[in-house]
């Protein structure tokens, strides 16, 4: 993962407010596989093998998608900042006392195949002021209390990662998945 | 946090961890904190943050020298040149955490009278995916086994979380000079 700069041109307070107004999508460690695929199956098994049961209440995160809860223009604006075309962008939100354990993300269906369009780019932007207790881990790196707007590019769209909220306020980050031709 | 050095060549941490079998598992409830002003304040903060009593996410287990060995305490005290006051190994299971808190020990005044209080953490496992430790505005991630850190203050805000797939162990040393 590498630091690629700070994005201060987007009103992140407004983006968060839009998320809160929309309600978003609550995600948990599923009772049954949400879709039949090897990635979900592998992740679920690894969590079960670690002693984590399905529907463990500690595991919860909310998502807000560009083109659904959020306007597509957010991804486009961010894409201009980093010089990449947006493909799949969303805000993830973890409440205090919740986490997403170690996992990789599967390619979402219904969005075409970004690999054929160009080189995959995955960037996370930390969109809140530095907040004690909010931890983001990707591969060998841990991001803690970054400046609002700080951007990090992942080594691969499928890097292993996890997030924990041990603090007292909600944890928010922007996830950009796109490509460069 | 100040990096002090590494003690993996002096203390067999794998052996110490293997001795941690029973311990005392703590969860968040009305009785989990000692009856001190500090903990009453923490309880109020946690409630305001939305943490509920018996929240399954909040859990850790403490092991003391009776299990892992007084020899470990003595060796570590010698390494850091500090008299031990309270020493324990803490464990956090996968998908569990100890949220931000300060340790307001009921007998803290005793420690303060004995000398200058100091707190160390020693990371006693091989670097492991998903294991995060926080003290104030510093996060320690994938420290080497045996790495020792001195806290900025004996009573700093801190937290530990396990987003990984294996148990997370840490050695905690509270002492005085």
Principal-axes shape call of chain B: globular
- List the quaternary state of the chains: heterodimer
Judged by helices, strands and strand pairing, the structural class of chain A is alpha+beta
The computed structural class of chain B is: alpha+beta
Enumerate the spans of chain A where pLDDT stays under 50 for 5 or more consecutive residues: none
Descriptive account of the structure:
The complex is a heterodimer of chains A (181) and B (177). Chain A has 181 residues and is of the alpha+beta class. Helix content of chain A is 21%, strand content 36%. Chain A has helices spanning 12-22, 38-49, 72-82, 114-117, and strands spanning 2-6, 25-28, 60-65, 85-94, 99-103, 119-126, 134-138, 141-144, 150-153, 161-165, 171-180. In chain A, strand 7 (134-138) and strand 8 form a beta hairpin. The radius of gyration of chain B is 16 Å and the shape is globular. Chain B has five helices and eleven strands, in the order βαβαβααββαββββββ. Helices cover 24% and strands 36% of the residues of chain B. Chain B has helices at residues 13-19, 37-49, 65-68, 70-80, 108-114, and strands spanning 2-6, 24-27, 59-63, 83-92, 96-101, 117-123, 131-135, 138-141, 147-150, 158-162, 168-176. A seven-stranded antiparallel sheet of chain B has the order 1-9-6-11-4-3-2. Chain B has a four-stranded antiparallel sheet with strand order 5-10-7-8, with no helix packed on it. Chain B is an alpha+beta fold. The chains are: A alpha+beta (181), B alpha+beta (177). Chains A and B meet through helix 2, strand 5, strand 8 and strand 10 of A and helix 2, strand 5, strand 8 and strand 10 of B.
């Amino acid at each position: 993962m590498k630091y690629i700069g700070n994005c201060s041109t987007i009103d992140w307070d407004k983006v968060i407010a839009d998320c809160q107004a929309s309600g978003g999508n609550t995600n948990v460690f599923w009772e049954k596989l949400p879709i039949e695929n090897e990635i979900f199956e592998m992740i679920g098994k690894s969590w079960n093998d670690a002693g984590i049961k399905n529907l463990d209440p500690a595991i919860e995160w909310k998502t807000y998608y560009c083109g659904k809860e959020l306007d597509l223009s957010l991804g486009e604006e961010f894409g201009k900042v980093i010089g990449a075309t947006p493909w799949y962008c969303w805000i993830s939100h973890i409440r205090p006392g919740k986490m997403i354990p170690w996992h990789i993300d599967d390619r979402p269906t219904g969005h075409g195949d970004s690999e054929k369009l160009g080189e995959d780019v995955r960037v996370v932007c930390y969109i809140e002021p530095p907040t004690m207790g909010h931890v983001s881990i990707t591969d060998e790196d841990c991001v803690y209390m970054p400046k609002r707007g700080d951007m990090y590019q992942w080594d691969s769209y499928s890097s292993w990662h996890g997030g924990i909220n041990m603090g007292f306020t909600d944890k928010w980050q922007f996830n950009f998945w796109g490509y460069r031709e | 946090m100040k990096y002090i050095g590494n003690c993996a060549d002096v203390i067999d941490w794998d052996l110490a961890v293997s001795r941690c079998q029973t311990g005392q598992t703590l969860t968040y409830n009305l009785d989990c904190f000692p009856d001190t002003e500090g903990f009453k304040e923490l309880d109020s903060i946690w409630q305001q943050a939305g943490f509920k009593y018996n929240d399954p996410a909040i859990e850790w287990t403490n092991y003391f020298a009776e299990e892992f060995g007084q020899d470990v305490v003595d060796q570590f005290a010698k390494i850091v040149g500090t008299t031990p006051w309270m020493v324990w190994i803490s464990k956090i299971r996968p998908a569990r955490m100890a949220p931000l808190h300060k340790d307001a020990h009921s007998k803290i005044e005793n420690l303060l009278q004995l000398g200058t209080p100091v707190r160390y953490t020693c990371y006693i496992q091989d670097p492991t995916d998903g294991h995060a430790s926080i003290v104030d505005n510093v996060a320690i991630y994938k420290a080497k086994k045996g790495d020792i850190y001195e806290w900025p203050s004996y009573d700093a805000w801190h937290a530990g979380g396990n987003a990984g797939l294996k148990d997370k162990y840490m050695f905690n040393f509270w002492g005085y000079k």
